[in-house]
Structures are given as structure tokens and as C-alpha cells.
Amino acid sequence: MRKIKIFDTTLRDGEQSPGCSMNLAEKLKVAACLEKLRVDVIEAGFAIASPGDFASVEAISKAVKDCTVASLARATKGDIDCAWSAVRQAADPRIHLFIATSPLHMEYKLKMKPEDVLTQITEMTAYAKQYVSNVEFSAEDATRSDPEFLAQAVRNAIAAGATVVNIPDTVGYTTPAEMRALIEYLVREVPETAGIELSLHCHNDLGMATANSLAGILGGATQVECTVNGLGERSGNTSMEEVVMALRTRADIYECETRIETTQIYRASKTVYDIIGQTAPLNKPIVGKNAFLHESGIHQHGVLANKKTYEILTPESVGIRVENLVLGKHSGKHAFEAHLKELGYELTQDELLRCFTEFKALCDKKKTINDADLEALVSHNTRAEETEERYKLDWFAVHTTNFTTATATICLRRGEETLQAVSLGDGPIDAAFQAVDDIVKPVEHAFATFTIQSISEGKDTLGDINLKLSALGRTFRGHGLSTDIIEASILAYVEAINRLCAYQNKQEG
Ligand code: KIV
Ligand code: ZN
Description:
This protein is an alpha/beta fold. It has helices spanning 10-14, 24-37, 51-63, 77-87, 103-110, 114-131, 147-159, 176-189, 209-219, 240-249, 251-254, 265-276, 297-305, 333-342, 349-363, 371-381, 428-440, 485-507; strands at 2-3, 5-8, 41-45, 68-74, 93-100, 135-140, 164-169, 197-202, 223-226, 256-257, 392-399, 406-414, 417-425, 446-454, 463-471, 474-482. A hairpin with a 2-residue loop joins strand 12 (406-414) and strand 13. Helix 2 runs antiparallel to helix 12 (265-276). The model has no long low-confidence stretch (mean pLDDT 94). Residues 13, 72, 98, 138, 140, 166, 168, 170, 201, 203 line the site of 3-methyl-2-oxobutanoic acid.
């Protein structure tokens, strides 16, 4: 079995995509998940991009012990200096530098002659190498580069000390056969690649990122760059969960293995989706709600006779529990804690207490509480929050019919103060949001998304609201959870407004 390294770029390429930005506490939470998952490399960010990025790369470098931590850098001295300052305290730091090698990028973006790009590769790889032995070089837009030129770029990088060379399909343009042929060509033409890691970084613009990565592995690549849930620029990157489970399920073909702890996959996926305020598409491979459901009679019959008829991998292998223990209002704190442990949650005493109080409150509204409810409750009550809660919902009342204008009264608390407003609106949610606006008077903003999902089956299910507001050139997320969807909506809106106000205050100094 060949060993394939998993390089996770959820915190860099993933976080770079619209609506996926995370605060420091959230990034640390994801990094902890990635370490449990046992990825080989965590790309923690692009240190020079902003002071916030620098701080998170540095904090992740200090926190993570069992993975290499990398920072991205353009092939310039300033970027490399900054990347090194951010990762230098990591147990195993890596500088990841890149420059484009395609004619299009060199002429129009870099405005550099090809020979100057080659010189820059040599000089900047050597420059990074002064700081650290673990240096990765990426030839951006490699799949649209002239293969001979690309081979020379790879030779230069290796000669200057690169220990990893990455071949990105930056715009998701290549195909599996082409990717395999390109890697085979590089392995053949640049025998020095035998002494280093040869890496892939595929974008998903044509839906082929996973297929291209797997084909590149067959061609001889030894590292795959990917993200949890396939997050990333535009249509995303290779999904970590897909590539890992494909390698494992079809080990007969790939003859490769990773060190990933696959039972942590579902937890990592859920953590990332919760943080960015999204849920997996129902049919998403491995982590979607339908991935292991068998609805049609023929399939159910087959699965009952023998699971293997329609299941090529088990839900347990990716950390999805099938038997669903039900808790209720008579369940005590010990049963609650023990069950959370079984689900893989390790909570602090404070978090446990908060979750248990919420659990008891939920028991008064909902007869039975299953794993999905518990996961939602724990995730909501253990959020990596940085923004202080300026405004808090105290109480609300709405009146709505299908023949009159809806009215909402809202009472918010700010410290010791209570603030009330009454407003009319086009439906109860509009009226309630309007009343919040009348109290807070936030800057002009628009709704980027507003989604409502049920956590489990049954009419008394928890309503899970995720919304995103756009204002001041950014998006602000809010999340609310309640058996009452109007309450959940107000909670989500107040949270997003708190974030918007905090950002505005920071900007105004
Ligand atoms: O897509 C890409 O080319 C990248 C590189 C910076 C590795 O993200
Ligand atoms: Zn990329």
C-alpha cells in the first residue's frame, strides 16, 4: 500500500470562498477537528492576507501538535517572511509558496517573462528554505501550462530545495485522463520527483475534482490537497471525505492508504457546516442526509437481506451512528453526559451544564429527543463565539392572520437595559425583524440567505435557522434553534445584527 498524504486547505482555500469566513475561535475549533481526523498537513491560512489571517495561522501553529502546519505565500520575500513568522512555532512548520506557470497567468496576471518566472521559482524556494526544511512549491494553473515549461519549473523548485511540489488544477479545467497523463509525464521527465512528495490540488468547476485527484494518484502523486465538504473557491476543491473514502473503498484499484481516522469524518463535516451556517446537500456523498438511506422497496428488501447489496461503505465507518438512542425528560445528567460521550463530544463542565439546561427546556416542548436534536443543541450551545452578545432577546409577541398585517412586539436586553419596539410587517418574521431594527438601528443591510430546516422528523421538531446579512462589503451570519421557528428566526437575526454592530464598531475604532 502506498501512503497518500492528506493536505487539508479548509482553513485557507475553503475559508477564502464567499460566505465561509471564520473567526479565530472557529478556525481553532476546525483545526482541532482536523487534528483528530489525522490529516497530515493543515494549511492554516495565507498569513500576509490580513492581520487576522496572520493571527490565526500563528495560533493554529501553536495549538496543533500532530500535523504539519503550513501558511501560503506568494513567491516573494515579503510573503515568505510573513509566512515564516506565522508558522515558526509549529511542531512541524511548512512554507507553501506559489507562482503561476501558465502562459495566460504569466502574461496577463504576473506580467513576467517565462524565464523570469523560472528564476523566481529558484530564488524564492531557496529563500524559503533558509527558514525551514519543509517547503512546498505550487505551480499555479499547472494544468493549463506548457508541460515542458512545467517540468522545468518543477526541476528548479526541487533543485532549490522544495520537498513538496504541487500541481494545481486551479480553474478545474482538466479531466481524469489528462491529469493522470500529466503526472506520469512529470514523474518520467523529472526523475528528481522520486525524492519528494508530488501533490495535487484540484478545483471542482466541472465536477471532476475528486476524479481528477484519484487519477493523479494513479499517475504517481503522493499528496492530495482537499477540504472538508469540498469547500473552496467557486465550486470548491476536492472533498476530503470523498477522496479518503474512495481510496479506502477501492483499495483494490488504488493500492493506497491514508492515515485518516475515518470515524471522525462526519463530525468534521458537521462542525464545518455548522460554523459556516450551511447544511450538506441531501445527496452529498458520504456526509449528506440521504447518503445511507434506502427508500425504495427493492433497495430496502436487498439491504435487509444483506447490507452489501446496496451499501459499499458503512455509515459507522465515517462516524454516523445508526441506532438512535432516544432521551426524554426523565433522563438525568449522567445519562445525558454518557450519551454525548458516545456521540464523540468532549465538553467542558460549563458547556455540559449549558447543554443540559437547554436539553431540559427542550424536553418540555418535545416528547423525545434523538441524536439529531442533541447534535443541533450541542453545536448551538458550544459555538466558538467571539462577538460579545450586545443585544439579547428577552421576549417577543407576534400577531398574524392571513387577512391583516402582522404585528410584532420585541423586547431586547442590552446589559441592564430593556428596549422595546412594536412594528408591522409583511408576515410575522418581517414584523419581528423590523421591530429589532427599530431598536438597534443597524446600518443598511440585505439578506444574502435565509434557510430553515427541520432537525428531525415530527411536527414538534426543532427549527434550525441560518441567515446571512450583507452589509459593509461583508456577510454576517446568524443561527437560531427553537421548536418555534419565529423565535429561532429572531434569535438568528439578533445574532447577525450583533456581529454586524461589532464589526462596524471595530471599523469606526
Ligand atoms: O488553486 C490554486 O492554484 C491554489 C494554489 C495557491 C495552490 O489554491
Ligand atoms: Zn486552490
